[in-house]
Amino acid sequence: MNILKLIKFSFRNLFRNRRRTLITLLVTASGFAALALVSGYISFTLHGLQALTIRNGFTGSGGTGHMQIFNQHSLEEEELYPLQFGINDHKAVEQDIADIDGVSFVMSRIDFSGLISTGEKSVSFLGMGIDPEKEADLLSPLVKHKSMEFENEALFNLKKTPNGVILGKGLASSLRADIGSYLMLISTTVDGAVNAVDVSVAGVISTGLKTVDRYYLLTHIPTVQRLIQTDRVSKLVVVLDETEDLPIIKPKVLETVNKYVPSQTLAVIEWQDLAGYYHSILDLYNIIFNFLGFIVVIIVMLSCVNTMLMATMERIKEIGTLKAIGISGRWITFVFLLEGLFIGIGSVFIGLVLHYVAAFIINSSMITMPPPPGMNISYTLEVYATTRYLPLIALLIISSTTFSSMLTLRKVRKISIVDALNYV
Amino acid sequence: MIRDMKLNNKTEVASLKNVIKYYRLGDVEITALRDINLTLREGDFAVISGPSGSGKSTLLHILGCIDKPDKGRVIIDGFDTTDVALEALSGLRFIKIGFMFQTFNLIPVLTAYENVELPLLFTGADAASVRSRVVDVLKKVGLSERVNHYPSQLSGGQQQRVAIARALVGSPRLILADEPTANLDSRTGDEILTLLMRLNREEKVTVLIATHDTTIINKAKTVINIKDGELW
């Protein structure tokens, strides 16, 4: 008997046993869809975490961008005074890098600290000098999330307020300051002197961590430079059009910054290496998803095996008859193997449709999820319709149906022909 | 009582030599067949008769190589099957033996043609010869007009005719029928019996029917009685 006859025979069995085939297909296709949805959610979450890290960052540190550029010395030793190892001539460097194809924009940041005072009360802060317009650009893909509108509005107000500051919620509360309040920033200059500038509150935001909110402050780069008496910046943040282009663009950025040697040696660090917190959360997610995924896979496989077992047990008498009329167990095994294979293949196609429909419904429902640990952004639940796991899931389902039919047949083969013929 | 039933002097088709079969029901061992000796020859048309539980079906199963005896030998067309596993006897069952069941045991999703074709599908026979053979046997059992009907679209008698055709399609030397008329009305049962007798006569196929239907017993050329696992 050739394989075509076997295929034809198996197909005929499946098509003619419509009810049994349909039920089996629906169960196994639902299994495929369930696994695909879980993998779609995992892909979305991991991709979302990446986007949040690049665009927003953790604990108020600001988005990492795709790369950051530092003075090499700042990575190797502690500064004796503010911006001792800052970047000189940062505007020229920014411009050179911004000219590279695929780079969306480049912006500067200054890390600094000091005291903030109402005149009556002074508290310490950890601040960051920023370009509010570009920071808003970095955040812009996330602004569709409702929780980001508030932060975006604060950046917009900061842009409009030349000597403005954005305070963390805890810091504002500690100073009893509100939008429009006048305060004073006090810090040491690069020469070791104490300097102060007057600022007004442009916004109050929450970073997601209360302890950080008590010290958090954002202001304009020129304000910080005026306070600490320097024209340097701490770092440059490079933002690309597409994250996937990072491996191509990084060498070009390196080449560009190397032009500044020997006047200054600049280091380029990718976003993954900047965000230690990202890796911690990624590890946490991986543990959770692996555990959940394992459970879902086991449930789906058991459902498939159970359904195939039921479908096979219905056919014990048929198997007994086939054996009694002289058809060998080998051929019967082949037929069941093929039927399991075809059920698996059919399940993948139906499962794909179910998956796309379910993903569409979930994505259209705009379900809001709580912020990840260390973040202030809640996000809208989304399930990616296509993930790199789909072929693996298809393989899993097809092998489940094929080998479960084999397993059940093995069990059936232990029943004698006479018992199979008398099976009710 | 030990009996060796030699029904005529023609070629031996199947024989049982000192066959014993036990069944276990919980802790109790039941002897289903006790030292059976039986020989069937070419062209025999025999009925094995006895009450329910007498061992008729067990004898048929062992003779049909779908069950093994605990002791004794089973020889089919000169081939001693004693030391051969049931699985390995599938070819022998196809070539030498045709089975008919009380409940017909047709595959419900296959048409009459496909049910009859089934045993041939798993051989190396080419499509044309398979078709020709299937059409031929369906014609012999009077079902030429019903080839594309499913079992559910056929009467009980027609279904049993399909079963006969399926048993015949491999040109076996022996047809074993287990209560073939039990699920049929008396008129249809008569028709099936007449058909089997005709095939026995025309095709020279040996037929052994297990039954307690007196109509069949009265029409059989040879009757073998069995009671409590013994022939008498």
Mean pLDDT of chain B: 88
* Strand element count of chain B: 11
**Rounded average pLDDT of chain A:** 87
Fraction of residues in β-strands of chain B: 25-35%
Radius of gyration of chain A: 31 Å
Tally of discrete structural domains of chain B: 1
Proportion of residues in helical segments of chain B: 25-40%
What is the count of β-strands of chain A? Answer: 11
What's the arrangement of strands in the largest beta sheet of chain A? 2-3-7-4-6-5
Q: What general outline of chain B do the C-alpha atoms trace? A: globular
Strand order of the largest sheet of chain B: 7-8-9-4-10-11
Amino-to-carboxy terminus distance of chain B: 7 Å
Q: What does the main sheet of chain A amount to?
A: 6 strands, mixed, barrel
The number of domains of chain A is 2
Number of helices of chain A: 16
Largest sheet of chain B: 6 strands, mixed
Low-confidence stretches of chain B: 1-7
Can you give keywords for this protein?
heterodimer; A: 424 residues; alpha+beta; six-stranded mixed barrel; two-stranded antiparallel sheet; 16 helices; B: Rossmann fold; six-stranded mixed sheet; 29% strand
In a few lines, what is going on in this structure?
Chain A is of the alpha+beta class. Chain A is 56% helix and 17% strand. Chain A has two domains: 3-52 and 279-421, no CATH class; 60-271, no CATH class.
What this model shows, in words?
- The complex is a heterodimer of chains A (424) and B (232).
- Chain A has helices at residues 3-16, 18-55, 72-76, 90-98, 132-139, 146-160, 169-175, 210-213, 221-228, 246-258, 271-274, 276-313, 316-324, 329-364, 390-413, 417-421, and strands at 67-71, 103-117, 122-130, 164-168, 182-188, 194-205, 216-220, 235-240, 266-270, 368-369, 379-380.
- Chain A is α+β, with helices and mostly antiparallel strands and 424 residues long.
- Chain A has 2 domains: 3-52 and 279-421, no CATH class; 60-271, no CATH class.
- In chain A, the strands form 2 sheets. A 6-stranded mixed β-barrel of chain A has the order 2-3-7-4-6-5, surrounded by 5 helices.
- In chain A, strand 2 (103-117) and strand 3 form a beta hairpin.
- In chain A, helix 2 packs antiparallel against helix 12 and helix 2 packs antiparallel against helix 15.
- Chain B is 32% helix and 29% strand.
- In chain B, strands 7-8-9-4-10-11 form a 6-stranded mixed β-sheet, with helices on both faces.
- Chain B is α/β, with parallel strands linked by helices.
- Chain B starts with a strand and ends with a strand.
- Chain B has a single domain, classed as Rossmann fold, CATH 3.40.50.300.
- In chain B, helix 3 packs across helix 4 (127-140), helix 4 (127-140) packs across helix 5 and helix 5 (156-168) packs parallel to helix 6 (186-202).
- Chain B contains 7 helices and 11 strands.
- Chain A binds chain B through residues 1, 5, 9, 12-13, 16-17, 317-318, 320-329, 331, 416-418, 421, and chain B through 61, 64, 66-67, 86-87, 90-95, 97-99, 101, 105, 107, 109-110, 114, 118-119, 121-124, 166-167, 170.
